[in-house]
Prior knowledge:
Layout: H1 8-21, E1 26-27, H2 28-35, H3 39-51, E2 55-56, E3 62-65, H4 67-77, H5 97-101, E4 108-110, E5 120-126, H6 132-147, E6 152-159, H7 164-177, E7 181-185, H8 193-201, E8 206-209, E9 221-224, H9 227-241, E10 246-252, H10 258-272, E11 277-284, H11 289-303, E12 309-312, H12 315-327, E13 337-338, H13 343-351, E14 356-359, H14 365-377, E15 381-383, E16 385-387, E17 392-394, E18 407-408, H15 409-412, H16 446-463, E19 467-469, H17 470-477, H18 481-494, E20 497-499, E21 504-507, H19 509-518, H20 522-539, E22 542-549, E23 552-560, E24 576-578, H21 583-589, H22 594-602, H23 615-625, E25 631-634, E26 641-649, E27 655-664, H24 668-677
Parallel strand pairs: 5-6, 5-7, 7-8, 8-9, 9-16, 10-11, 10-12, 13-14, 17-18
Antiparallel strand pairs: 1-3, 2-3, 4-15, 14-17, 19-21, 20-21, 22-23, 22-27, 23-24, 25-26, 26-27
Helix pairs in contact: 1-3, 1-19, 3-16, 4-16, 4-19, 6-14, 7-8, 9-10, 11-12, 12-13, 22-23
Amino acid sequence: MAGVHQSGVEILLGVVDRLIEAPGGTTAVALAESLAVPRSSLYAVLRPMLAAGWLEAPRRGTVRLGAAWFDLAVALEAEPQAAPSRPRLQGMTVPARSFLWNPGFTELVDAGPFARPPPYVFGFSNGSRANLWRQGLIHGVQFAASEHAGRIAALRIAHADDDPAAQARDIDAFLAMGVDALIVSPLETEALLPALARARAAGLPVIMVDRLLGDASHSLVQVVGPDTAIGRLPAQWLVETLGGRGGVVMMVGDPEIGPLLRRARAAREVFALAPGIRILDTVHTEMTVAAGRRAMAGLIERWGDAIDGVWCDSGLHGAGSIQAWVDAGRDGRVPPHTGGDQNAVYQLAILHGVKLAAMDFPPAMGIRSVEAGLDILAGRTLPRRIEVHTPLVISRGCETASVRADVFVEDHVRWDRPASLILGHGMGEDYDPTTFAVGKGAAADGGARSILRTLDILVWLKAHGGEAGIADLLEAVAMPRSSLHDLLVPLAGHGLLQRGGRGRIRAGPRARAAGFAAIGIADLAAAAEPMLDRLARSVGGAAALAVLHGERCTIALGRAAPGAAPAVPPIAVGSRTPVNWTLAGRLLVAELPERRLRWLLAAHARPRRDASLTLPELVAAIRAEGGQRVAVLAGEAGPDLAEAARPIRGADGQVRAVLLLRVPANDLPAAKAVLEALDLPQAAVPILPTDPSPVTEAALP
């Protein structure tokens, strides 16, 4: 193929083929040579595939098939399910505590003079992109504009990147463009005041979000987070958790950012009213996990056991603080902490037994600012200061007399998302910052659009059971019917997709092969399919192949004997359960390294029969259940049912999958004997990462 031009879609198909044959992954250099394409052309394909989860990068310069392929393969095997609903704006309808509990009155704004009919053009002047929280705020503005596309014709965004002069110019430019409403997330500098005054004098409604300037008279409304509550409530919880006595250290992100100063001031008020509480030290961090880790290491070295509690204004450095205590050998004995926002702080608190109280500083303010702009242009009355609600999150069993949880840490954490995820974003359960805005609307040439639309089609099929109607696809990927037809031809010819009946499209056999190759069971799945059918018939029950996918036990393949149901219900293909809930799941993880097993078990906030066990006790119980050639258990799947399970090992002796039989309880001895005598195939070495981690373009050379 040397010297022959290949389209982006052809390169994508070639990448999938090569990686099916090399499930452990290969280098980008080797892929470019094998496909006879320039590296620049290859990277144009690899980057969006990495961002969307169709590829993973275990090491710099190396790529392999991503777990998204397995999700698609399982969707094909599973029973059809109702299509998931589109994410909606979440958390916007609950008023903030500051509104409900304010002992004074709320200043209201009559927006009648600004009323005008849609469609509207919105401007968004963003002062900074300096941290992950800012990313969530920006995505929230974009998400809300998309949700209200019927009224918002265009959203124009300008990033000043911490340059006050640039932001002042941006505000003037939006005024010259004639936008209908302007959202400003300002740098806290008086340099912006003249530009804002010009906008106000011209009658442009300005919505300030996140930060404020002076008395905020230059904006019509301000959308902010509940800074004083974020400082005060967790501080009061810390006082009561310590019994009113002890040494506390404070970690403040930046001494010059208004919201952080307000949080710290509110916390100090609480500590000042508790005579037994002594503030040992206050440190300022860069609002990052790494900076928090370094700062806390220094505090531990200086104060040691005198530190009884840690107040953090954000989990961005709170996560680093917890990690510093673990580094110091205090795993399981880390002092109580405060600080929310980042997923990592909740994950680490559970893993290391840390008492935690937190309120996320909600990037959903971005969403609410768009809503406020629409309210203004509709002429509605609204508060001049709009504080966005955020729940109080406390470790289960750690509430105090006056500070009660809205939600427990164990229910708030997201184990299926990266540790870097900023919570309180309001964009639905499926929001992932690493894939947000990939696809429609991206500025790309025709070849890049074809790649992104191919990935959009795969995502749509994965979410809808592996099959969808062409009409639905046309709406989902926003392209003309003729263009979709031209794109489907090579995809169907390759076998990645296939045409179904009555104008429907299904994932094809190559997509299924990629799915099983992605988790290292391609050969095993091929051997297991006829085996499962024979086993189900021989025992008069159901048979399944279970694998560890992410943090869950997932049924990859399943068969049921004709006539077995309803006495023996089939084992649902595609079902994903916490590893400690089923016999198969426990066998899959019983021999994992200690750190990995603790991580998996901590991910499940609602254990079943083992609810009374501590984490070390649960680890010991699962270890004891593992190691058997065939394990059996009655009653777990149903009162008259029993299960027999046999681990399938790889060449390295590690458990890679579990073969599971479900039978009437009286037939359990026969099912066990069948599994004992079975000559099992060997599974390939798995390629899934030990701990989930975000993948970025930096993984490429």
